[in-house]
Amino acid sequence: MKKLIAGNWKMNGSRSGNADLLQAIVAGLPVGVCDVVVCPPALYVADVIQAVQGSAILVGSQDVSAAEKGAFTGELSAAMLHEHGVRFAIVGHSERRQFHGESDAMVGAKAQAALAKGVTPIVCVGETLEQREAGQTQAVVKRQLAAAIHAVGHCVSEIVVAYEPVWAIGTGQTATPEQAQEVHAVLRAQLRAATETADAVRIVYGGSMNAANAASLLAQPDIDGGLIGGASLKAADFLSIIQAAS
Ligand code: PGA
């Protein structure tokens, strides 16, 4: 299957900085490329959509509301995102689970809300260091994915899953390819139990993926791409990862 490389810019960037970054990425994009998505802060989505026009790059958001519309101050609906050309939405990133109290059920509801409007949710799962050391990794990621599978029902083959061990995010401490593959295989088995088309679901890895380690991670049988934070803010690094996935 075609691999997916998504850049999660988090709360970084500026109008001029984004323009420079995108210009360099678009100019350096290899032909016959894997699927490439950039997820800027929502305020920049319209600018970014314009900047990537005519290229193979798609645009995602970093979050989406579980609600369709109404009294939800500060939130953006899937319909609004879709109207602006956003085709992916990260849901349940560990930073949102940690700093915004997002529960498994809420993450599932967000995934469902996105799918309902034609936005592909990138559902993030992952254990903390404490949970890994307590031997709870598989139980944690299975619980998180189960909530999303339950919420999206028969549409499960349309989601993207991102395995992001919390201890690897922004720390420079990447999971080894074997550690990541072990968890991806567990997630694949769980998807297979839910849908006949589980092998078409992309399970991407995130957590200090960079130009140096991308190829070995992406060579694993169940690693179908990457969700890239820090390294997606540097054109050369992001392009190297894209190259490794293409
Ligand atoms: P990182 O972030 O690549 O900076 O570790 C990944 C993510 O949080 O999606």
Descriptive overview:
- By secondary structure, the protein is an alpha/beta fold.
- The protein has helices spanning 15-28, 45-51, 78-83, 94-99, 104-116, 129-133, 137-152, 177-194, 214-218, 235-245, and strands at residues 4-8, 35-39, 57-61, 88-91, 120-125, 160-163, 202-206, 225-228.
- Helix content is 41%, strand content 15%.
- The model has no long low-confidence stretch (mean pLDDT 97).
- Strands 1-2-3-4-5-6-7-8 form an eight-stranded parallel barrel, surrounded by five helices.
- The protein has a single domain (4-11, 34-42, 78-244), classed as Aldolase class I (TIM Barrel, Alpha-Beta Barrel).
- α3 (78-83) links the parallel β3 (57-61) and β4.
- The longest helix has 18 residues, at 177-194.
- The structure holds 2-phosphoglycolic acid.
- 2-phosphoglycolic acid is lined by residues 8, 164, 169-170, 206-209, 227-231.
Task: Please give the structural blueprint.
Elements: E1 4-8, H1 15-28, E2 35-39, H2 45-51, E3 57-61, H3 78-83, E4 88-91, H4 94-99, H5 104-116, E5 120-125, H6 129-133, H7 137-152, E6 160-163, H8 177-194, E7 202-206, H9 214-218, E8 225-228, H10 235-245
Parallel strand pairs: 1-2, 1-8, 2-3, 3-4, 4-5, 5-6, 6-7, 7-8
Helix pairs in contact: 1-10, 5-7, 7-8
Number of strands: 8
- Strands of the biggest beta sheet: in what spatial order? 1-2-3-4-5-6-7-8
**Annotated CATH topology:** TIM Barrel
Low-confidence stretches: none
- Number of discrete domains: 1
Major beta sheet summary? 8 strands, parallel, barrel
Bound molecules: 2-phosphoglycolic acid
Q: Name the helix and strand elements from N-terminus to C-terminus, one letter apiece.
A: EHEHEHEHHEHHEHEHEH
Amino-to-carboxy terminus distance: 11 Å
Fraction in helix: 40-55%
CATH class: Alpha Beta
What is the rounded Rg?
A: 17 Å
The average pLDDT score comes to: 97
- Morphology call: globular
The CATH superfamily is known as Aldolase class I
| Number of DSSP helical runs | 10
Beta-strand residue percentage? 15-25%
CATH architecture: Alpha-Beta Barrel
Give me the secondary-structure category: alpha/beta
